[in-house]
């Protein structure tokens, strides 16, 4: 899980949290890998028409799972990796070096707003990041920041936790989600923190509201192409 990217939080505190988790992050969530693999499988189909020399922006990519997947399948693509946690980015860089694709990557330690220039990318990924921006205008601005770094017609594949928290469906999905996480070697203390975070620190909104914020950020109406429990994924084209 990646915590808030909003300007209303202590960013140093969040960086410190993920710096602590970086070396064990992939192992901790290894048993939920089938969700990630399914997302990546469908991501391939959404990005299938990108050019052989595509440039792809990966925002808040943690240890770089989506970067590694895309780089190994597409040897001509180049990547910009944006991640505020130095330790997470170090793990991402190490993965790229071990995979033999580090030379095709630009690693940026920081936030999207501090990324130099406005290089024209053909596509972008942003998985489980915007949900931690609780202020709607800031969340729209976050998506606009991605749009500004895409070519016209460029694609964004994004995912977030999403549900109508006031609906009976949320109770069903949340209960199943907690049971699934409990089977993923997450401690009772971590589970309690997750419940609290979902209630206080995560912008879990109905899928239609998230789609409207993506559109307001400069994209054509998003199309949902993925759902696994509470995780929803959209593909959007820059307007």
TrEMBL record:
**UniProt keywords, alphabetically:** Methyltransferase, Transferase
Q: One Pfam family name from the record?
A: Methyltransf_25
Superkingdom as given in the UniProt entry? Bacteria
InterPro entries in the record, alphabetically? Methyltransf_25 (IPR041698), SAM-dependent_MTases_sf (IPR029063)
The Methyltransferase domain covers which part of the protein? 56-154
Top-level enzyme category: transferase
| SUPFAM superfamilies cross-referenced by the UniProt entry | S-adenosyl-L-methionine-dependent methyltransferases
A GO BP entry is: methylation
Q: What is its EC number?
A: 2.1.1.-
Decide whether keyword Membrane is in the record. no
| GO molecular-function term, one example from the UniProt record | methyltransferase activity
> By what name is this protein known?
Class I SAM-dependent methyltransferase
Organism listed in the record: Pelomonas dachongensis
């Amino acid at each position: 899980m990646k915590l808030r990217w909003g300007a209303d939080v202590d960013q140093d505190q969040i960086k410190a949290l993920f710096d602590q988790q970086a070396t064990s992050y992939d192992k901790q969530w290894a048993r939920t890998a089938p969700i990630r693999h399914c997302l990546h499988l469908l991501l391939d189909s959404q990005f299938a028409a990108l050019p052989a020399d595509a440039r792809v922006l990966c925002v808040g990519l943690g240890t770089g799972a989506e970067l590694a997947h895309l780089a190994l399948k597409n040897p001509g693509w180049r990547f910009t990796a944006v991640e505020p946690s130095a330790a997470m980015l170090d793990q991402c860089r190490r993965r790229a070096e071990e995979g033999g694709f580090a030379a095709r990557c630009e690693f940026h330690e920081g936030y999207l707003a501090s990324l130099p220039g406005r290089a024209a990318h053909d596509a972008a990924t942003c998985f489980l990041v915007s949900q931690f921006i609780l202020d709607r205008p800031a969340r729209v601005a976050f998506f606009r920041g991605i749009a500004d770094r895409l070519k016209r017609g460029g694609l964004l594949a994004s995912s977030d936790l999403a549900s109508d928290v006031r609906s009976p469906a949320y109770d069903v999905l949340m209960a199943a989600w907690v049971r699934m996480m409990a089977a993923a070697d997450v401690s009772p203390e971590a589970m309690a923190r997750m419940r609290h975070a979902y209630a206080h620190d995560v912008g879990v909104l109905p899928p239609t509201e998230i789609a409207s914020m993506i559109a307001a950020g400069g994209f054509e109406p998003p199309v949902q192409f993925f759902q696994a429990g509470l995780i929803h994924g959209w593909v959007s084209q820059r307007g």
